[in-house]
Amino acid sequence: MTGPLRLTHDGIRLLLESDVEPYRRRDLDAELAGQFDRLCEAGLLDDRGRVAKDARHVVETLREPAVRMEIEAVVGRTGRRWYAALGDTHAVVLSPPGIALGPGVDAATVAAFEEPPPAEFDVQIVPKSWAPVAACEWLGVGPREQRSGEHEVTGPIDVTALRRRLADATEPPPPGVTAALWSQPLLMWGLRTEPGDAHALVLDGGATGLWAVTETEPAVTLVPLPPYEAWRMILAAITQAYRAN
Q1: How many Å apart are CA 26 and CA 36, to the nearest integer?
Q2: How far apart are CA 243 and CA 245, in angstroms?
């Protein structure tokens, strides 16, 4: 293929079902026929609609992963979902466009974002050790200046105010947080791996860095999370899931 493999959920189902009973292209509607062509071009199906021999590990990993890793992100007024199925040697990553905040993006733009999740997502087939790298790339976890946090967050903050702020940049800062953080383009993401129950919740505070979020209703506590600690957190969640398998 000349570019990334992009599929819909129906395209993934087509791949999995083809392992049981291959489809003939002429029997598919136009949308599924397009997915069929992409699967063939990517070498996952042969021209007779059967799962290619070299692609068996992909189907097996999708059907019965050793570890499932999911990231749910709140971006403005909508959400995005990243998923990876990890096997013994490989991982299959399903990702929509990344949520990393680029330079020049302001708080109001992020808070007002409401595009629905796209129907298609990128499919990456990578060594299992690359899955956390793909997750960090999607999240925008990388080198970033991280201050101590003592000037941005002075105590627990109201969780309902934080939820409102994610979708409304005009929400005033509640007690416990300063404008230095509140005025940043904010988004939140949660990570979970299975088996087991490893999970984490993180606030991306733009120029103020990443923040680990601990929910203690009706408040949340924010603790500075340097990027290397976020990386270690993701690795630990994957390791814990493999050990629980």
Answers
A1: 10
A2: 5
Residues 76 and 31 in one domain: no
96, 81 Cβ separation under 8 angstroms:
yes
Average pLDDT over residues 19-44: 95
The Cα 19–Cα 150 span in angstroms is 55
Residues 35 and 90 in one domain: no
Please tell me the predicted confidence (pLDDT) of residue 99.
Answer: 83
Q: How far apart are alpha carbons 53 and 45 in whole angstroms?
A: 9
Residues 174-206: pLDDT tens digits? 998 988 899 999 999 999 999 998 999 999 998
Q: Coil, strand or helix: which one is 134?
A: helix
Whether residues 34 and 150 share a domain: the answer is: no
Of the residues 15, 32, 62, the one at which a domain ends: 62
How many structural domains compose the chain?
2
Q: Classify residue 76 as left (phi > 0), alpha (psi -120 to 50) or beta.
A: left
pTM of the complete model? 0.93
Peptide bond into 132 cis (omega under 30): no
Q: Got the DSSP string for 206-222?
A: GGG-EEEEEEETTEEEE
Same-domain pairing of 30 and 85: no
Give the residue numbers spanning the domain of 46: 5-62
Residue 149: the pLDDT is 61
| Contact yes or no for 139/199 (Cβ under 8 A) | no
Q: Please check whether residues 129 and 90 belong to one and the same domain.
A: yes
Q: At what angle do helices 56-63 and 9-18 cross, to 10 degrees?
A: 110
